[in-house]
Protein 1
Amino acid sequence: MTGAQETNGSPPHVGLFVTCLVDLFRPSVGFASLKLLENAGCKVDVPNAQTCCGQPAYNSGDRKDTRAIAEQVIEAFEAFDYVVAPSGSCASMLRKHYPGLFDGDPKWQARAQSFAAKCHELVSFLTDVMGVSSVDARLEASVTYHDSCSGLRELGVKAQPRALLASMNGIQLKEMGDSEVCCGFGGTFCVKYPDISNHIVGKKTANIEAAETDLLLAGDMGCLMNMAGKLRRQGAATEVRHVAEVLAGLTDTPPIAGRAK
Amino acid sequence: MQLTSHKFKSHVSKALVDAQLQKALGNVEKGFIDKRAKAAGALPEFESLRDNAKAIKDHTLANLDLYLETYEARVTAAGGTVHWAETAADARNIVLDICKRRGARTVTKGKSMITEEIGLNDFLSQHDIEPVETDLGEYIIQLRGEHPSHIIAPAVHLNKDQVEGDFRRVHTHLPEFRDLTEPTALLSEAREVLRQRYFEADVGITGANFLVAETGSSVIVTNEGNGDLTQTLGKVHVVVASIEKIVPTLEDTSQILRVLARSATGQDMSVYTTFSTGPKRPDDPDGPEEYHVILLDNGRSSMLGTEYQDMLRCIRCGACMNHCPVYHAVGGHAYGSVYPGPMGAVLTPSLNGIDKAGHLPNASTFCGRCEAVCPMRIPLPKMMRHWREQEFEKHLSARASRYGLGLWAFFARRPKLYRAAVSLAMPLLSRLAGKRHRLGALPLAGGWTDHRDLPAPEGPTFMQQYRKHQASHRP
Ligand code: SF4
């Protein structure tokens, strides 16, 4: 069943949760998300009262601030049919982790649970909820895809982006070794333990380079910024984009962290 | 062993530049991951076995007192003795008493993490009793005066040449020019040397993978058979095990055994699975004269009923560390604790205090691979996060990061203020980066820019651009 049917014929009303990194660093991904959602038949709005999903506080053990942020997000978004984020880890935060923040507060917990059920990662929302099986975009490039951890393990995002990429014209997908292994970003981890993070991302970029593709794609800005920053520092040839940019055919902007040469 | 988790960062710095260690760690990644995946994939019911295994332990933990009492009664009925040890010191003293009573000069040991936890070897040595490790890996690290770097592969941080060097250094009674190039030569040399020690030993000490309440049996799984010799050749067999090793029945044991080796080494079963019940009976061909079980608590009962109870399901298979990117990067010794990797990051603060082991639950990317492979479905990242929460509440986390986080949260909780701030900052940062679209260095961002460039913002934020775009398209 598609979302359109669920809402009695009128297009599903989607709240776009932009995510802080897309908002601050990569607006292109926000516009790509808008385009993909609208092409899939959604009516999309972007509430003003959004900052971040709260992961930095949550994973630093600051439950009080996390909960305050979660309440803010729920209030801003709960009226929509769906809430969609171009990030596996932010979507998973909303979908899998918000309800647990309200343990011992049944009223808020019920609210968080019905909110959580509407929250989705962008690409899997397009395929699994909206029934999108192909996109009308073209890019002459070989690409490799990194499976970001939360999207992969908490939301099962794996086949969906590959299926949509395969539907595009011109794209050649080449799998890298260990595409499911963490890139070493880990949110605040990468600045708390920079040497370990660097070691892990070094193994990742070696796998990326060995795949010998024009582009590296993934669905999470944190991982993308980490891998792009490392690839550029190493003078590698692979350029980096969010998968939504490619699926939406919006690749006129410079890649993340700039061109290789 | 002395807990040195507070020195985690300096351990890490050394580990990352240790070429030999890095090479050995590459073997962990290659050696365990594919094998586990194959073994799990080959068994259609593997996922449902994991559910069963979890359910068995959950049920046991909910009724732990009952099963412990049943177990004690069965051990006693079989002619054995159960000793209750609340602390590590209690357990050590009970072992020492047994050894002294039997006039033991040497004891052989099967591989056991619990005797590492209680620091048994050093303690026995101080009391002039020589502990002899009989598992090859444990034997090697004992020769080197080290501690295990992995819970099932204690010497995984070493290479063959190092072991050969140790054997030549210690086994001086053997011919100088013997050929030790093949790993099998090392194994047979260790066997040769150890054979003698089994007969000299008065007491054999093992751990236990399971304690079966229904029968009063202790169960060990090994691949070398050394555990069997340890527990049958000595006059006295002492089992040291922590209280959560209990399972209700033999059927339960076999259910969990089906996920244990597959998760650990990718074997269907370990080579030896040995059940011991009481001392030698009159008609038995062999076995020990005395059979003792020391049931150690050492902080575990205080985990019951807390958010850390799930950790007590752990069967010490090692899959979590085998799949951990941080463990792969730094190895087991860097953690500075008996138990390394994700399971250690949860367990060590429980056993030793979060104030002493704060780095461990923080040094995780939360990639979730440990939880994905844990046969007992232990939510390791969630519990590490609980530790971070306790640290935060107790103000144990670093001042600078608390300050940064507080500042960030102040803005994140005030969308209007946040908008105003980032609408100024992002275009500025973007201009600073210019046409390269990245920054090689940035004040206060050294953690990031020491190792990688910082991708620059594209310009104005999405919200700025989107609102502008909307305003110009308004009918
Ligand atoms: S936590 Fe799970 S994966 Fe890790 S050792 Fe224990 S049972 Fe194995």
Protein 2
Amino acid sequence: MLASERDQLKTEIWEMARKYDHHRSGLMPVLQHVQRKYRYISPEAMQESAGAFHIHPVEVYGVVSFYSFLSTKPKGKFIIRLCRTISCEMTGKAVIARQLENDLGITFGETTKDGMFTLEYTNCLGMCDSGPALLVNDEIYTEVTPESVADIIESYVRKFGASVTEEKKHE
Amino acid sequence: MNDKKTARNEGIILREIDVDAILIKVLKEDREDILREVTDSKLKGRGGAGFSTGRKWSLAAEARSDQKYIICNADEGEPGTFKDRVLLTDYTDALLAGMTIAGYAVGAESGIIYLRGEYVYMIDHIHDRIKNRYENKLLGDNIAGKKGFVFNITVRLGSGAYVCGEETALIESLEGQRGEPRNRPPFPVTCGFMGKPTVVNNVETFITALHILDKGAEWFKKFGTDKSTGTKLFSISGDCAKPGVYEFPLGITVKEVLTHIGARDAKAVQVGGASGRCVAHDEFESTLAFEDISTGGSIIVFGPHRDMLAVARNFMEFFAEESCGQCTPCRYGVEALLEGIEMLEQRKCSMKYLNELLGLCETMQVTSKCGLGQSAPNAFMSILKNFKHEILSRDSAR
Ligand SMILES: Cc1cc2nc3c(=O)[nH]c(=O)nc-3n(C[C@H](O)[C@H](O)[C@H](O)COP(=O)(O)O)c2cc1C
Ligand code: SF4
Ligand code: FES
């Protein structure tokens, strides 16, 4: 990490922590911010957060490792989370899973080489009456069909100028 | 935002009301009268555990402290539950007013909504409604002109952990810790967030309390049964013609529900989500009520063609993923049950071992630290009880 980047990260963490009087109850919002902006929580971010809340870095690590939406490894710009819980399973989540893998050219748990998409499973998204459901970062998609998977992916590629997905490289 | 298309059968909770008029009216009443009305209504918590709301509020009101908290549990993570999603998007002001009244009744100035991370897409909407209420003096200082009454509401996000719906894990999470359930007692009403008296209620509970204070406990008790008063929202999914959120009086039979939603050919219904239990055909006359089949409102319907062992597997995988791992019965038990399901899939499970697993289930129910581990074996036990023949006579490994 560049010195200037680390300074930036440090400033952000300490400014947010100050809003919570450096009380530990501010730790989750800080980590959520870092995860959102930097796509993971780096060792440096853990050290700074620990400093800002007067706790040991291992405490921060303990928290990060507990929550499935926080990660110590960089994720793609867009995290696609497909619901694998029962109601979505019954409405055909397996077919959507296969199409996602085919269209992105990766398997679950992986990130595309261009760093754009990470593919994961998640549990019930609270959309059980209109499954299969998936999340792309903060956005929810319901009644997903195999045909619409490509459209969803394309919409992010277009909106955010993602270069190419893995699949297209083979074309 | 509008999620109303999925909500049906208006009764109490989904009726149109003038939220602000009710709030202003209630804030003119004495605290004791509010507590008494809620207690008299016999309202029980809508998040699943079914503790008396009036009692919870009264205990928090009695606790002496310079600070108290009102927490709305919007972590809705039980598989098959989505009624809070509808309430949070379309009945937001009713929720905020319900929390405000709770704050007034127990003497709390701070309210926190703990919103599951998966629902972050609705946070801007909730913030908008909160801002609007501050502008209209329905939040903040001297609410509705009531001198000295202060109540503030903030929203905090979860980060993808089902166990954080358990109230003490939720509090740990708010305090910046791993979401591991605490030992109880002490209960949150005496020692909760930051060690202060804290009321944790489900989204629907706050809204239902608002309706009770509008129309009175006697009116509320006309709905439901003697022990399970009022109506409740049900989240219905699976093999049925009309999935969605429904409001029914408590005490309705499973069969009546199935008729309403177009699922007459159902072979089984999972009531209460992954931590609930599987109800088969011969129990369809049972009622959905605290004294019979108790539930937070998740109803998942299985049609005649469903493979019930696959259903059991899906539930156990859920728990294997979501157990916090803090205590052995839950951590080990869930893994053992999942292995048992694999053996059953391969048709390699002896009756002796199956019975051992059922014994393990009972141990988990009794010795696990929190509700997750205590209820994780329910689905396994009830599916095996109801569908033992189907499961043992599977003709090929799938
Ligand atoms: C594993 C687990 C998950 C829970 N998830 C929720 C939840 O998402 N929402 C909720 O209101 N209650 C949930 N509960 C119940 C809460 O611990 C608590 O009883 C409830 O929020 C109290 O509110 P109520 O009395 O209004 O129902 C959960 C309990 C357990 C054991
Ligand atoms: S029962 Fe399970 S979820 Fe609850 S404390 Fe024990 S390990 Fe954690
Ligand atoms: S089971 Fe997929 S959203 Fe609930």
